[in-house]
TrEMBL record:
Domain FAD-binding FR-type: 31-147
InterPro entries linked to this entry: FAD-bd_FR_type, FNR_nucleotide-bd, Riboflavin_synthase-like_b-brl, SIP_FAD-bd, SIP_fam, SIP_rossman_dom
Protein name according to UniProt: Vibriobactin utilization protein ViuB
Biological classification of the source: Bacteria, Bacillati, Actinomycetota, Actinomycetes, Propionibacteriales
Transmembrane spans: none
Coiled coil (UniProt feature): none
GO molecular function per UniProt: oxidoreductase activity
Gene name as annotated: viuB_1
PANTHER family: FERRIC REDUCTASE, NADPH-DEPENDENT, NADPH-DEPENDENT FERRIC-CHELATE REDUCTASE
Residues making up the signal peptide according to the UniProt record: none
Cross-referenced PROSITE patterns: FAD_FR
Amino acid sequence: MKSSSPSTGRSEQYLCNEPLAQFDYSDPMPKPLHRARVTAVFHDIPGVTSIDFAPGLAPRSHVDDHVKILLPPPGAPYRSPVPIPAPGSPAPLLRTYTRRRYDPATGAWGIDVLDLGHGGPGSAWAGSVRPGDEVTVRGPGGHWQMPEHPGTVWMVGDAVAMPAISNALEALPAGSRAVVLLEGGGRSYPLPERPEARIVDIPVTSGGSALVDAVRRLRTPDQPWWAFAHGQAEMIRPLRRHLRIERGLARERLLLSAYWIAGRDAEGWRVMKPEFNRAMEAESGD
Ligand SMILES: Cc1cc2nc3c(=O)[nH]c(=O)nc-3n(C[C@H](O)[C@H](O)[C@H](O)COP(=O)(O)OP(=O)(O)OC[C@H]3O[C@@H](n4cnc5c(N)ncnc54)[C@H](O)[C@@H]3O)c2cc1C
């Protein structure tokens, strides 16, 4: 049930690229920050907090379009919406979420935050955010656009990839096919209904091993195919090895993103991720 929507006013872009240099962002391309107003918070999907925002960000132009929500670290001398921190003050925490909803007519957008049940800062924010709150948002960013005629797309992910996979299903052109392998797919996340998609629920296993095994068992399509895979790092690396080396899938037909790693929070993972990606890609000489 939607709660009240007190404001749909345009969110304000209030920082330029330049001050971002003082933060330890792994992204080499600084992106603008925006102040974004929450218009609605709802819980229509079990285990998910859906959060809608007023217009003001660039249009959603990629299947994997995402934003980073800036949150004050514990003890920070500033609060949300995070301002440009004074030199020497602690950098904000960044939590990344897929823009699941985007209304091209108004520019309003929304995210779905999975309840991970561990009280991390992103989960805690989603648990307490209210309509009318303002947050600082970095982005949007994104890397992949659906090809015009992809043939078959394998969409593979764990629970937090469900918003991105839903966007991919929506973007799937008529006449193309999708094979969707979802860890914990038995959850009630409402995937867009596409008759061309075969959805396979995979049990949750440590390191996503059942998901990787399920991909190994798929028959390589006769027609051109692509792979779109998101989730924990321990599952993404063997997946890439399998798809790229054992199946020989061309690099440009593979969009993988290691969203998180067990035992590290998003800050810890952000520090490790560039080297992780380098080592993973080096396995296939990329
Ligand atoms: C491009 C991108 C898009 C994303 N889109 C979404 C989205 O649409 N919705 C969504 O809910 N999440 C999404 N995520 C994942 C989300 O950013 C992370 O799960 C985030 O770390 C959660 O923040 P937190 O503060 O709750 O936990 P953190 O403080 O980052 O981590 C606390 C603890 O929880 C563990 N942890 C972190 N993430 C997970 C997880 N997914 N499952 C189990 N344990 C975890 C960590 O290893 C750590 O031990 C996306 C990530 C990326 C990179």
